[in-house]
Amino acid sequence: MPKAVVLGGYGLIGSACMRSLRSAGYQVIGVGRSHSSAQAADPAAQWLIRDIPSITPDEWRTHLAGVDVVVNASGALQNGARDDLGAIHVTAVERLVEAAQTLPCRIVQISAAGVSATASTKFFRTKARGDAVVSTHAKDWVILRPTLVLSADAYGGTALLRAAASIPLLAPVVLPDAQIQTVFVGDVAAAVVAAADGKVPSGTVADLTESKTHSFPDLTATMRRWLGFPAPVFTPKVPRAALGFIGRIADLLGHLGWRSPLRTTALKALGDGIRGDPTAWEVAGGAPCRPLEETLSQLPATRQERLFARANLTMPLAIGTLALFWVLSGLIALFDVRGAMAVLADDAMPAGVVVVGGAVADITLGLLILWRPWAKRAALSMIALSLAYLGGSVLAAPQLWLDPLGPMVKVLPGIALAAVVWMLMEER
Questions:
Q1: Would you kindly state where each structural domain of the chain is located, as residue ranges?
Q2: Is Protease one of the keywords (predicted)?
Q3: Which CATH architecture has domain 3-301?
Q4: 303 in Cβ contact with 336 (< 8 Å)
Q5: How would you list the strands of the sheet with 27-32, edge to edge?
Q6: What is the distance between the alpha carbons of residues 224 and 158, in angstroms, rounded to a whole number?
Q7: Which residues contact 355 (CB under 8 A, 6 or more apart)?
Q8: What is the pTM of this model?
């Protein structure tokens, strides 16, 4: 049985490649740094849990013994708290290629349409450098460059399209001049299998794309119809300046671990257009990639799709609301410690400890939920602390339950919102 290793095996493209290679008769090993993400993506698969850029050439030689093909589907859109473009797109590829030079295996590099050394974003420039390493130093290789990949899974650009298409009543006109081509993830996976089987000659560099182009507003409108949402009532134009501001906010969140599809790299790539030329792939003997309409026909939009699109749209609002609520509640208590103490008890010392300690805890949780690695735990801690506040109020300040403004009753919606965030937070 032939053997394949897939870097980034639980990503959007990598997971599709693993399934297709396994169906084609390969023994497949996925590589990624998150055990939980790997198990969620494919618990039955064989996994190598490692941070890919940290794997040395000597380690790769051990892992690649007896391997027929290596598929590099790993990548990151932009530098952030968890991602280093130079490490993942260049250093990791250099080490992999160095190890593979002495082994009889083919490297299939998944790149991106439009990469070049002079591209407008670091993503494309580092991807181009990785491609150059493969084409210059690898013995047996194929480089595949998909355009915007559409899949039943939703990360990055595909998640952005779903969210934009799900805005109630509104369809903001964004990047009206951007021209986009798409490709079905199944066609990308089939191309990888063809390359792995040797049906594509070594040295092939090919874009994987449909032939037709779409403006970004038209693509969003098509996704809206596919999801089954009603036509928008308003179509306001969004100025580029406003879009740039949103991108900078998303970049800031990237340093807190959030991989927002609205970061400046994604917006710049969309603004420049995502286009490719299918000629090289067809000349190499590859099957033509499906047009957008046929792709969507392979991806029926169910109730789950609509719920995901709306949830993806509202999650930032929910997290921002929780952060603001908890930070403000803590600050207000600190600004009027005596007033808060008066509500709790006549004994100033214990009441002071409770007020100040609770305020610090509130502010801490409000800030922690903004940090992606701790967001889920922060939401769960908000629920626990809110329940503690409710229980403590029965003993220390039962009169609050009879207050006409209902301060304690209003804690319950906060618990519910934190529970929603905790349950919906999911790692790739």
A1: 3-301, 315-424
A2: no
A3: 3-Layer(aba) Sandwich (3.40)
A4: no
A5: 46-49, 27-32, 3-7, 69-72, 106-110, 141-146, 204-208
A6: 13
A7: 333, 337, 340, 341, 344
A8: 0.84
